[in-house]
Amino acid sequence: MGNALEQRQLELEVLASRQGDSSKAAEAKLLQALQQSPEAGSSDSLIAQALLEQRLEQNEPSRRHLGTVLKSGPADLQPLAAALLEPEQQAEVLPPLPQRPLYRLLTCDALGRPSQDCVAGNVIEQAQWRLSLLNLLPLSGVLFGIVLLLQLIWQSWRGHGNPPPPLRGPELNLTEVVLIIAGGFVVLGGVVTPLLALPALGGLLAPLSLTPALRAATEVLILYTLSALPAVVVLALLLRGLPAGESRWLQWRASWLNWPQAGRGLLMSLPIVALSGWLVERFWPNAGGSNPLLEEVLNGRSSLALLMLAFTATVLAPLFEELLFRGVLLPVVGARWGIAAGIGV
């Protein structure tokens, strides 16, 4: 799991536990996640770390972090750092508070103020509901996926499974596929297009008054679209040279009737993804890391930026990759060397 998403879930755990006995273990784990984040040295993160360190009675590092913000942090965070360093000298008016509810609540605790001065009364109840959904939905999906996988294995073992559909793709040769993948996707899309598009994109977005998170999400959306175009154009040009009919097929059979099958496939993939993630975390705990763009979008609290990033990751990227790899590479390679080779390549 990326560091940014892990932080959000840990924040929910700490916030939800506030109604009962506060969990020191969750607070310590959240502090560790903040310290390991790429944004650990930012002023916002230093404030969050200091608040958690105060809760865990780590007063010396807490004062050191607050002193750093007071000396070199942005002007809007310096009053908060000063108030946390000297809570007994605080004024009647609260300093500007952190954006996220947990740290607002911890600020009230540190300043000896009632929680309703910093957060709405139902914020803890909302955190408990959100945490329950975050825990139950993935678990339910994995359990349903295991049942469907066991059913599929049983049917295949008994000889009652449905045979896989025949691989039907465009009548392209391996040289043309290499031209699409290596030429269009790797060279033109992955190297040439970013080199040409990034400077122009920066100049295009410069006059617009966008937040850093929205600007980054917009750049990713436009750049990914432009990077996908060369491979699609090369594929379209090659398909134009083929006779009309089945030789141009890309196995595109969009239909509402396919949604149940798609849902089953999604559920069956969840146990495999969960197992892969557990194995990576178990044997290569530092192999992944966080996505800096995701952290910036989440910290920016921009719904539009989050929507654009989600659209790029869940619509554009799968559509392009399915078109290129399942629509072209898999059937062409599979027709010559078998389905296993097509999947492996």
Question: Can you describe what's shown?
Answer:
With 345 residues, the protein is an all-alpha fold. The chain has two domains: 3-127, no CATH class; 164-344, no CATH class. The chain contains 13 helices and no strands. The two termini are 26 Å apart.
Number of helices: 13
Strand content: under 5%
How many domains?
A: 2
Global shape: globular
**Roughly what is the average pLDDT, rounded to an integer?**
82
Runs in which pLDDT lies below 50 for 5 or more consecutive residues are none
Key features of this structure:
mainly alpha; 2 domains
Write the layout of secondary structure elements.
Elements: H1 3-16, H2 24-36, H3 43-55, H4 59-72, H5 78-85, H6 101-111, H7 123-158, H8 174-205, H9 212-240, H10 259-283, H11 292-300, H12 303-337, H13 339-344
Helix pairs in contact: 1-2, 1-7, 2-3, 3-4, 3-6, 4-5, 7-10, 8-9, 8-12, 9-11, 9-12
Précis, in short:
The chain is mainly α and about 350 residues long. The protein has helices spanning about 5-15, 25-35, 45-55, 60-70, 80-85, 100-110, 125-160, 175-205, 210-240, 260-285, 290-300, 305-335, 340-345.
